Amino acid sequence: MNQFVASNHEILEVNYLNEERGIMSWLLTKDHKRIGLMFLGATIFFFFLGGVYALLLRLELLTPGPTIMDALSYNRAFTLHGVIMVFLFMIVAIPSAFGNFLIPIMIGAKDVAFPRLNLLSFYIYVVGALLALWGMIQGGADTGWTFYAPYSSITPTKVIPILLGIFIVGFSSIATGLNFIVSIHTLRAPGLKWMNLPLFVWAIYSTSIIQVLATPVLGLLMVLVMVEHAFGFGIFDPARGGDPVMFQHLFWFYSHPAVYIMILPAMGVISETIAATARRKVFGYKMIAWSSLGIALVGFFAWGHHLFVSGQSTLTAGIYSVLSMLVGVFTAIKVFNWVGTLYRGAVKFTTPFAYICGFLFFLVFGGMTGVAVAAISLDVHWHDTYFVVAHFHFIMVGAVLMGFLAALHYWFPKMFGRKYPEGWGLVSAVLIILGFNATFIPQFLLGNMGMPRRYFQYPEQFQALHVASTAGASLIAFGFIIIAIYLIISLKYGKLVDGNPWNARGFEWMTSSPPPKHNFHHDPEFPETPYDYHLPEAKHAHAA
Amino acid sequence: MHTQREGQPYLADHFGSLESQIDASRLGMWMFLGTEVLLFGPLFTAYALYRFLYPAAFQAASHHLDIAYGTINTLILITSSLTVAMAVHFAKVGKNKRVVAMIVLSLLAGFAFLGIKSVEYAHKFHEGALPGKYYALEAVKEPGASLFFAIYFLATGVHALHVIIGMSVLVWIGWRAARNTISPEYYVPVELGGMYWHLVDLIWIFLYPLLYLI
Question: Cis omega (within 30 of 0) on the bond before A514?
Fold first, then answer.
């Protein structure tokens, strides 16, 4: 029997989008696909908001002196940009949106293990995000997204609602991660072994481990800062015997692994899309799967590289330095295997493939500079400069965003049964990738020349590079406007696709697009591997 | 609730068997308990760090706490863990009325714990042991003593919040037992609620010696 659904009549009749109608059927849904879509909508809203702040920052930095805002507004803008992008967009975007939509389908389940908890997780996110938003409207915070003590405990700005919002959003992250881990352990279809799971599932599994283990620490730390701000207990206040460096340790114990919460799911997306575009089995499946867990593990013991200039002993710093570089080894294993997958593949130049190329470039470039800043002596020079800003934007924006966009385009037909216009997709991808390079490569140069991060003004000789960076940012914005327009139009008028428009072998394509409410029309019979491209037309004949 | 299959009132629609559904619940609960331990992590870290930095102050402040309050509360919590364990046992053998009785006893213990804690808090407020800028305790003046009380109030405060959450969970499982929506075939809510209560107890078992004894 043909496992890959080919015809589309089943789709238009009844699927998860139209089986129940009305706003309440969405707000009270326990269907992981609908919850995934709601997460997707919410995170895209916050991405837009964070992007607006980014553009305001770049506009302000167009000239050496004050341009469009005063210094305090600038401090608030970069704080809110960071808070929104990290806590409300990136950490949530791929796991909670795409993970929710895809994980149960990929493991052949009808839903996640705890559907009510899943819905609760969405509302926890909404409440936390709205609270943070309210704090921003009330005046925001000026501490940077890192909330370093002791300044965060004495700033006159409204840190408490924002901290409380982050604290609450954290529980959403924990609930979703826990749900995925339990689902992957207990809900796999009969006969679906761990080593046959799609690599996206492995990536989300590793991510979930970090979410579950690291987030509680951040949660309580946010409580400590709130208590400090409200009552002045002195836990981080040197004047009362407290130690502000302890804040940094606890903060990065979460926030460094949090980088992997962002990047690992994007890596999972790349593994899936790269196999489908190259039409080859993923090269080194086991290496990619285990290196995800390796990153999750080592990621927990690398946080000290944020504190090289905060008074660590040389030995401690050296250990953290080596452990941080180890992350580069695991990442390189993945990169080589992805490139190996592409080698001699039948590559089609689609929009997801453009983002795969962008991803590989940004990941390698960002990763190499990451290894460079992990070297203690170099970091002392680059610490708190634009070099570091450019490095982590290459990973967190460059690579993560490429993964997010690849996922959005690759699974758009899965979610809505329609396709986006490929030509416009490629145009915007090129704009974004070029714009991104124009934004951040000058920032590497600025940082190396000594431009400190988070500064409102700068000496005149830096202006040319800042102008280049701002110009790049507007290209990115332009690219996103195009994407927003064509995706919204495609939702209603996009070309209808059949069940498997990419002719992919991933398990999620074994059901119709969009899938029915319980994911599969019949109990699925899983093939050995989700990347079985060896016998392209024989076993999985794709009858139109 | 999910649509229920014929003759399987407890089985949710997306699970193949009740066994794997119970497995999933247990695994979820164990992981959740792990996150709870990590939630207390920063407080234990802060304790370790400041105890190392200010050993004399921590010793003096620890001795200043009233050991009777702490010890009685420890005994109360351990007893409540016993009654909760009994509740799980009775749920397993289908004696739901006794489950309710055991839950009521555990709740009483919870109230007693919180009552003693609030008396102790009131006493500490009164003598000026509030940390930071409020600190005015004459008896312990070593530098760093205020940090001991900061950790004391935060750790016991967060713990008390967990006692309250745990009591709410106990009310819920007591309610289910009273309405007979659990049975020897499916008593996993009692088991998991009980696990949460044991965790609350266990965290106190660590806080008690750190704060009162050493």
Answer: yes
Residue-wise pLDDT for B75-92, tens only, equals 999 999 999 999 999 999
| Alpha-carbon gap, residue B96 to B87, rounded angstroms | 9
Alpha-carbon torsion, ordered A181, A186, A187, A190, to 10 deg: 140
> Looking at the predicted structure, is the pLDDT value of residue A49 above 60?
yes
How many angstroms separate the Cα of B96 from the Cα of each of A345, A433, B103, B169? 64, 64, 10, 16
pLDDT at position A4: 56
Instruction: State how far residue A213 is from chain B, nearest Cα, in angstroms.
Output: 6
Query: Minimal Cα distance from B32: which residue of A?
Result: A178
Rounded-to-integer distance, Cα A257 and Cα A130, Å = 25
Compute the distance between CA of residue A420 and CA of residue A483 in angstroms, rounded to an integer.
9
Planar angle of CA B72, B74, B78, nearest 5 degrees: 120
Q: Of A181, A190, A220, which has the smallest distance from its Cβ to B43's Cβ?
A: A220
Which chain B residues are closer than 8 Å to A109 by Cβ?
Answer: 14
- Residues with Cβ within 8 Å of A137's Cβ and at least 6 positions away in sequence, in order, are none
CA B32, B34, B38 angle in degrees (round to 5)?
115
A149 lies within 8 A of chain B by CB? no
Interface test with B, best of A235, A247, A519 (most B CBs within 10 A): A235
**CB-CB neighbours of A54 under 10 Å:** 22
Partner B contacted by A523 (CB < 8 A):
no
Asked if residue A530 has a cis previous peptide bond (ω within 30° of 0), the answer is no
Q: Is the dihedral of CA A14, A16, A20, A23 positive or negative?
A: negative
Nearest to B170 by CA among B145, B202, B195: B195
- Pairwise CA distance, residues B98 & A23, whole Å: 44
Largest Cα span, chain A: 74
- Of A41, A52, A121, A128, nearest to A85 (Cα)? A52
On whether the CB atoms of residues A293 and A195 are closer than 8 A, the answer is: no
| Amino acid letter for position A42 | A
CA–CA dist A41, A92 (Å, integer): 11
- Tens digits of per-residue pLDDT, A422-472? 999 999 999 999 999 999 999 999 999 999 999 999 999 999 999 999 999
The interface pTM score, or ipTM, of the predicted complex is 0.93
**Lookup: tokens for A452:** 């400190």
Whole-angstrom distance, CA of residue A122 vs CA of residue A100: 11
Which uninterrupted H or E stretch holds A418?
strand A418-419
CB B184 within 8 A of CB B92: yes
Q: Which two tokens stand for residue A236?
A: 């981080």
Q: Which amino acid, residue A35?
A: I
Residue A385 is given by DSSP the state B
Q: Which helix (H) or strand (E) holds A496?
A: strand A495-496
**Of A113, A187, A166, A101, whose CA–CA distance to A410 is shortest?**
A101
Cα within 13 Å of Cα(B20), Cβ side: 18
Interchain CB distance below 8 Å, B133 and A234? yes
With beta carbons less than 8 A apart as the criterion, state whether A299 and A282 touch: no
Per residue in B108-120, pLDDT tens? 999 999 999 999 9
- Count CB neighbours of A57 within 10 A: 18
Q: How many CB atoms lie within 10 A of CB B113?
A: 24
Question: 3-state class of A224 per DSSP?
Answer: helix
* Binding-face residues of A in 257-296 toward B, CB within 8 A: none
- For the entire predicted model, the pTM comes to 0.94
Q: Which residue has the tokens 């145009």?
A: A427
